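MODEL INPUT / OUTPUT PAIR
PAIR INDEX: 1
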Amino acid sequence: MPRSTFCRSADHALDRRAFLGAGAGAALAANMTALNALAAPDVNGALKKAQKRVILLWLAGGASQLETWDPKPGASTGGPFRSIQTDVPGLRISELMPKMATRIGKTTAVIRGLNTKNGDHGSGAKVMMRGRRDESGLRYPDLGAVVAREMARADSKVPDYVTFYTQTEGRSFAPGDSGFLGARFAPMELTTNNYPEFIKKLDGITDLDHQERGELRELVGKTFEKGRSSETMNSHNEAYQRVRGIMASEKLFDVTQEPEKVRARYGKTQFAEQALIARRLVEAGVPFVRVARAWWDSHGQNFETHQEMVPELDHVMATLLDDLGERGLLDDVMVVTLAEFGRTPGINASLGRDHFASAWSCTISGAGVKRGAVYGKSDALGNKVVAEEMDAGSLFATIYTALGLDPNKNYHVGSRPIPLVNPGIEPVKALVK
């Protein structure tokens, strides 16, 4: 990328330093992540209908609302693309999304009034993964960890929380984080390919060896536990106890298990294949899957970037929603499209759009939301929200409510009660069935 078009935020500098220093610990980190996120058994039909699950399509770097859900054709900020009518009267979206234009009324709520006040990649991503800022000495769990905590089964043989982020740019800005919920609900992070590298038993270790090593670890652990008690220790023990169960779920990550016509329907891009794996995982009972698509940070050549990436998003999102609907899963699986922020209405000298968190868009589809609902309105140029503004907290309260969770439910850190969203924040009822 030409120097003049590169984002010079401190977050990018941190990302490069993190990348350079990551090699030595990568294998160990991936191994521990795989152990930390393990869950377990096959979900029967009745449970599938009762358990809500979430797929988050994470548009890393910040997709432009003006080239997706909130176009401004003809305005000085509008850019070259037209808007098209959707199946919802009065709702027009970018011409780059013709497939979703015919599906919004049957699947999706569009939110056009996000004002999240944070235009930094790293801290903005944390806010949009958690719904609030961390406190000094207290790390909040992200959306994936909360959904895993609320929806996972104790005896499950599938992961609780899986995240795909296989591009390198921006990866360190938005890692999955279980915060104070501990290792039991930490994510299985796939960063090199679509298959968990450490899910298989090594060829040189027999099944008996593996079982005996687990028994030895348990024996040593019980010896260590005598006279001690802590939530952290209990969380790690729960994660380790489920290792053998997770190893049995490896075929869920193998897209060759799908018929060729299904694979062709999604497409052979990495994003498409990961969305298909996400469908396989939630169908098997995984509560939360994040699929990251990078890199939308279009400080230069914004229109070329979005002309390439938005049609892919349109196709993958439409195919995923169709597939979930045909399988009878759309009432129980929520699909969220979200990023750390949007992009400026103003077009810079490099024909790019910069970071913008004052009036941007996201969508929620499927479980628990009013399909075809549109909430929020930006002004004629897209510079500010003029009606139905939402912040990160109210977005998360709405998501939790649509999933059947009480956003005022308390967790406890020591004796301190901590609700799922900060006190006083309410869901937007106009978006919830």
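PAIR INDEX: 2
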Amino acid sequence: MTTIDTLQLSGLALAFSLNIGPDVQAQQLTALDVLAPIGASYDQLGIIGNIPFDTLVGNDVVWDYDWIEVDPTAADITTQIIPLTDAPDADLYPGADRVERVISGPANETVTDRFYDVVEGAVSELGSVGPVLSYVYDDPRLVLDLPLQFQDTVRDEYCFWSDGLGTQYHFCGHNFVSFDQVGTLILPGGTYPGARHITSWRSSLETTEPATDSSYTIQQQWYVAGTPFPVLDVSLFISSESGLVYASGRVLREAAFTNIKERGVPTMSVFPNPASNEVIVRRTTSEESLLQIQTTDGRLLFAERIPAQTLEHRVGLDHFPNALYVVQMISSTTTTTCLLQKVQ
């Protein structure tokens, strides 16, 4: 059990050289694993007391965080994936095709929209608009390059303007994102084997004259199968100038864990994924359904009725541009959604 009772920064060095076996090398994170589709929403609660922080490396790691405590009376932090048309500041980011809205505060009064560009699995952040702090990148910051193989690291340099309380500051830094661990995650809501761990390390140096402060953030996220959003998200902010260290963490509300358990085997899958000329849509339900394929900004490109008892259906992709798409199977009782990546 690893906690941050006493911070030892020397023990927080990122480990990008790991001893892994051949089975682990085949594992990867895809858009289906980490990008929630439009319309998805999930709630998190802040962790109180000790903040879990992992310094283990490799395969078959066990993260025993059953001791995590949250404040059940605190307001949720809700994250929604919204259509671009629902974001009032979308015109500031013409290259965006994905918006992540974070809602917090006792009366849900704090709303922040983060804008992303997703092209052939490359996820880049363009900027953010919030009530107190907004920022925009000089060039998009590469967040992920999917699929991400086990032990792969994405590296990027970036600069951005930050605007808050009437003052503008300019920062530059480096970004590293590594898919570095696979193991069993134990939380108050249950035990999840096959959890995948991502470490992000971001440096930031103020370049506004005169340059005065530098800092870095280490963020860790855990993902479990069938859940395209982090079930546990913790971070450390460390100021090199002042020595300030701030730890924070969020975990899914218990009801969300119940939904994960009850969801069981997905009722729909697409194969292959990524796909080029054709995709096979498979399902475990036998109801008559409507199959739809949409762009990530909500434009409907394909719709077809799937007869009852048809468990497998082929869709040609020759006329689809290379991009990320949202696939939905809609019946009278359920709607199942997944992501599809079209490539050459």
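PAIR 2 NOTE: Confidence is low (pLDDT under 50) at residues 1-26, 262-266.
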